[in-house]
Design brief:
The complex is a heterodimer of chains A (about 450) and B (about 300). Chain A is mainly beta. Chain A is about 5% helix and about 55% strand. Chain A is built from three helices and 21 strands. In chain A, a hairpin with a 2-residue loop joins β11 (about 245-260) and β12 (about 265-280). Classes of the chains: A mainly beta (about 450), B alpha+beta (about 300).
Amino acid sequence: MALAEAAVAVIEHSEPLLEARLDPEEPIGPQAPFPHPTLAALTSAAFALPGLATPTQAATPEPRQWDLGYFHYQEHGERMRVESLKQRLVLPLGDDWDLTFNGVRDTISGASPIYDLPEIRCQDGRVITPPVLSVSGASGPLPTNAGAPPERPPLNGDCRIGSVRQVLLEDTFQDTRTLGDLRLNHYRGDLVLGLGAGVSNEKDYDSAFISLDLRKTFNDGLSTLTAGYSLASDTLSPLNQPDLTEDKTAHQFLLGLTQVLSRHELIQLNLTLSDDLGYLSDPYKGIYVLATNQAVAERRPDRRQQWNLLARYVRYVPSFRAALHLDYRYSTSDWGIEAHTLEASWIQPLGAGWSLTPRIRYYSQSEAEFYRPYLETLPDSGDYSSDYRLAGFGAWSWGLKLAQALTDEIQFELGAEWYDRQSRYALQGHSDSAFSDYGFAIYGLSLRWRF
Amino acid sequence: MEIHRFCFRAMGSPCEILLAGMDQNQTKGIYELARAEIERLEQRYSRYRPENLLSAINRVAQAGGSLEVDAETAALLDYAAVCYRESDGLFDITTGILRQVWRFPLDTLPEPATLTGLCARIGWDKVHWERPRLEFLQAGMELDFGGIVKEYAADRAAVLCLEAGIQHGLVNLGGDLRVIGPLPSGQPWRVGIRNPEQPAQMLGWIHLAEGAIATSGDYLRCQVIQGRRYGHLLNPKTGWPVWGLASVSVVAQNCLVAGSLSTIALLKGKRGVQWLAELSVPHLWIDSQGKRGGAGLLRSLL
């Protein structure tokens, strides 16, 4: 569960790993190799010659290679830290098959916000902080108040909510997530059939998933149609509630089209529908109720349907021998969150095996219908959550990647990304959640070996 | 199922087309179609045929001025322009006039002043190309599609066979080889790579079920003068033959790209080694000292 939060923060999609499993363009590990711009330029120029586009461009198994990566994710302040080790092994099996094995091991530590605490300011200068009962970490339940609620002034003209601050679940737990999955691709002329299955395990969260996808190339190799389905079945057993075991099922459907527009351009459109059912709350998150001066467990709907649209434009820029990637993502869910992402990256070969890729991204989301920083009184029914990921906010991130082909077979990559989330960056109207603004940095080092 | 082998000479080289999976009559008809296409391209773009399309272009190049070209020539010029750009001006289809002085066998080395004079009339940047009009900004120039047309012809012949329904076969025009499809059993073709140091021998074999392989090298046309080896590939900027690499083979999706990549690598000399590594294409290089390197499926020949 803890890692799910980190991963969400990084990719800002509720189920980033699931999406990665379905999207053949976005493997979980280091990025798939983009053909060297010179090779891409010559190949596309050759195909522009009359009668050179072959009737079918058969896809073939991937070359044998091994990727190994280390990533360090660090939220600003003494918040969450994730050390991640990933590997990906691709083995061609004959002419028509290849097998990919992914393995990930994450170590998660640090504090994460669990609820927001309103502070009351009165005209006479008093500042009253509602009591926070001891939060002893992941091994105990959310604190509830046994006795009568402590005294606090009524919220009228004289006293009102002045500010809100976050209560963090302190660095008392360390979790490890282990993920392994296998993917088998079958190549049949212009058709590629992919089958995948895997499991992921944490102290408090187990997941098993399968996926199926189909890619077909047509129109002289200029168009590729992708269809996919994946199913994940998760079990939660939160450490703070020893008697609780809950299930969650996630379905995801993908339909994609990649179209070569000209010698130097292509576009990609992906439409994804995810349908999550079951226990979708975060068992570690609470919401503060002013009337009773206590935090109660949050409550989310037991189903969420979300649509994602990705539109990507890739252009080779001959004068720089570089490639430009422009992405726009739109997502909307029946929880009321609507999000836009704009991202641009520039892949610049520098000669002598070096290449540099700067990247910039802007993200903005509206808040969920049931997002409240805190509650005045506890409603009898309905959903409520003060999770900062369900608030309205915007975020800027910047990244830089430096790659070097050491030899014909070995390539090194160094990357860094910085992220800044601010309530005021959002495009959409929303309640202020500046108290949960934060930032993080990711540093990565990876190695690719073709053998 | 039989494999039908057709041998012929075209573009100054021994050629062969191997076709399988159809009966003899059909196969023969398809071969003739492919052969006619190769002949058509040679007729249009060979610099040894009088009164062809290329000589008409070169009359304008000689006098200076401009002309309009047809769609196929335009596409070849577009391709040549990409090669020029991606090779930093080393792959230049206006280099041909240097052959006036680098005529093998050489008796003596050319005078530097002669080369400087010729280089002044070389350069794709002295040509203004905007579809469909080709303008030579300077008189005394010459175009040469060697290094493009043979490879293009191999690809065209292969695509014609595919379109005619052949699924198994290959086209080999003097070592520029394009696979049409694997053997009827699904097995790849075994393709021999000649040893540049001892052309009668093979370096070894690779298996190719699709795609193309092309080799550029100076081993067939070079000469040693005063202990230095002079090849037929010339640097358009200096007028001198390039050295460093003796032979480069590249595997790519089609023969045209394989041929251009191997030629550009050779033109880059020793720097070509790093450049090939960056491209991540299967390749094999042999330098003038006999040292070898490579990647991908050609590594087995090291």
